[in-house]
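Now for one record:
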Amino acid sequence: AVVHSLSSLESYVFDMKRPVRTVAQEPYFTQRTSRVFVCGGMAGKLVLRQGLSRKETVLHSREGPIWHVRWRVHFIPWANDLV
């Protein structure tokens, strides 16, 4: 997966080891050093990725593919097959 910043020229390349359908960056992605984002896809997992580190946290799983995700302030809504 390639994550491009919308407010700067920065790009980050990550090997997610699975097909990714949707990605959402944390608010103020370019202003923080953490570079946190969430992604989901055909594996059926919503994953929180800690920037350039390899640390991943599974936020949700086992309800089908993740089709869409957004990050709005303190909330991360997503859409899967059970919506």
Remarks:
- Strands lie at 2-4, 11-13, 20-25, 36-41, 45-50, 56-61, 66-69, 78-80.
- Residues 44 and 62 are 6 Å apart (CA to CA).
- The mean pLDDT is 84.
- The chain is about 0% helix and 45% strand.
